[in-house]
Amino acid sequence: METYSLLRQLADSWVLLLLTLFFVGVVLFVFRPGARRAQKDAAESIFRHETRPAEADDKESR
């Protein structure tokens, strides 16, 4: 069996299965219980210093 055929067969079967499982894992990780707080914090991080500028000593501004 030549290399191309072997790699093509591998990609059509096992790699497809692996990528599908990876996708399902990422989706489950995002929608896991308790992730809402972290996602909300990440979404609102750009508005953290909206009312006043960040302090010069603020660790978040680095």
UniProtKB/TrEMBL annotation:
Record's keyword terms, sorted: Membrane, Transmembrane, Transmembrane helix
Keyword Transmembrane: yes
Tagged with keyword Transmembrane helix: yes
Transmembrane segments: 14-31
Domain of life: Bacteria
Annotated source species: Paracoccus maritimus
Protein name: CcoQ/FixQ family Cbb3-type cytochrome c oxidase assembly chaperone
